């Protein structure tokens, strides 16, 4: 039965509806503005029409999924803070005290917290327990997880997002919490590209220069020890990834299979998008990029995905903070195409 849900989901991801996209472009060009003058808002409106097969798709039920998981590689000293912070922040999310809660509440987004691999037992109201294992193994010494666990992490994401879509969700955000997770994200990017470690490894939560050099060594060691197969997204995820990265990749694949837009957040969400793209390249048609992280590899991820971020706010928090900020812009795009007057309606010469 292994991979049945994953294979079924991948098979359901369609190409965008070109006819509906052409219709959306025609509509946008007839509105009271110079053609193309609303830039990325118009691009988003066209892309949404292609996803949904509707000229006026709705994004009025916004949800945001935060995947929480820990990383064995933290024992190598790659993070500025201790692993206990993962659990502490999960409780902070549940108590509505984190940045993601504040920003989501502002724009009317429901936040769901998933324990997909926290290295400890959590018991809290509102937390959804989908634990695959108690954190990954140390990827500097061997695979982060086995292939079965990698599949389980992705299928967890698919299950979570599918249920939300069945309950009416039509715009989905991806976010994460996991101390040490920029290290596997850097390893994924380095595995998939031939970029140097200077281009793929950044300061994460705020390590110093010496720790940064150590982190680069650890990423190099992880690639050397594990030799991930660059053509196999599951192999890359299992060997040098993270459970929350797999979970977010699953959310992206599941949303794409249901023809729904999903927001890419920062560096770790970008790593999940790379894994999802390796598994099924068409998934990128359903991804909406939010912001460009300060992490050096993030813009390279967007280049590989063929996407361009909307915002550049010097942010590097994670949690999906950029994804939630970007949701307002996506809704703006749907309102422009559906609510603006055409030149004819407004009796404006053009």
UniProtKB/TrEMBL annotation:
Pfam families: DBI_PRT (PF02277). It catalyses: 5,6-dimethylbenzimidazole + nicotinate beta-D-ribonucleotide = alpha-ribazole 5'-phosphate + nicotinate + H(+). It comes from the Bacteria. This is Nicotinate-nucleotide--dimethylbenzimidazole phosphoribosyltransferase. NCBIfam families: cobT_DBIPRT, PRK00105.1. It comes from Acetohalobium arabaticum (strain ATCC 49924 / DSM 5501 / Z-7288). The gene is cobT. InterPro entries: Nict_dMeBzImd_PRibTrfase (IPR003200), Nict_dMeBzImd_PRibTrfase_bact (IPR017846), Nict_dMeBzImd_PRibTrfase_N (IPR023195), Nict_dMeBzImd_PRibTrfase_sf (IPR036087). Keywords: Cobalamin biosynthesis, Glycosyltransferase, Transferase. GO terms for molecular function: nicotinate-nucleotide-dimethylbenzimidazole phosphoribosyltransferase activity. Belongs to the CobT family.
């Amino acid at each position: 039965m292994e991979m049945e849900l994953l294979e079924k989901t991948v098979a359901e991801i369609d190409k965008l509806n070109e006819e509906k996209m052409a219709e959306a472009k025609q509509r946008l060009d007839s509105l009271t503005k110079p053609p193309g003058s609303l830039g990325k808002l118009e691009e988003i409106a066209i892309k949404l029409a292609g996803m949904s097969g509707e000229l006026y798709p709705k994004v009025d039920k916004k949800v945001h999924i935060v995947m929480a998981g820990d990383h064995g590689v933290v024992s190598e000293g790659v993070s500025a803070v201790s692993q206990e912070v993962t659990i502490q922040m999960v409780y902070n999310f549940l108590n509505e005290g984190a940045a993601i809660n504040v920003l989501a509440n502002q724009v009317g987004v429901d936040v769901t917290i998933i324990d997909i691999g926290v290295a400890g037992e959590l018991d809290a109201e509102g937390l959804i327990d989908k634990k695959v294992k108690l954190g990954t193994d140390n990827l500097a010494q061997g695979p982060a997880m086995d292939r079965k666990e990698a599949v389980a992490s992705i299928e967890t994401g698919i299950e979570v997002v599918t249920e939300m879509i069945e309950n009416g969700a039509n715009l989905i955000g991806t976010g994460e919490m996991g101390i040490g997770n920029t290290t596997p994200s850097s390893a994924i990017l380095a595995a998939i590209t031939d970029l140097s470690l200077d281009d793929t490894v950044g300061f994460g939560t705020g390590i110093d220069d010496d720790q940064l050099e150590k982190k680069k060594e650890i990423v190099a060691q992880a690639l050397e020890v594990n030799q991930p197969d660059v053509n196999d997204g599951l192999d890359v995820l299992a060997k040098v990834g993270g459970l929350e990265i797999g979970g977010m990749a699953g959310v992206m694949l599941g949303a794409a299979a249901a023809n729904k837009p999903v927001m890419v957040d920062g560096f770790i969400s970008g790593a999940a998008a790379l894994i999802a793209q390796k598994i099924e390249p068409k998934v990128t048609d359903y991804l909406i990029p939010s912001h460009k992280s300060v992490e050096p590899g993030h813009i390279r991820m967007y280049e590989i995905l063929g996407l361009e971020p909307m915002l550049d706010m010097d942010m590097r928090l994670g949690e999906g903070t950029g994804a939630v900020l970007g949701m307002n812009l996506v809704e703006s795009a749907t309102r422009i195409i559906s609510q603006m007057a055409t030149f004819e309606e407004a009796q404006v010469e053009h």
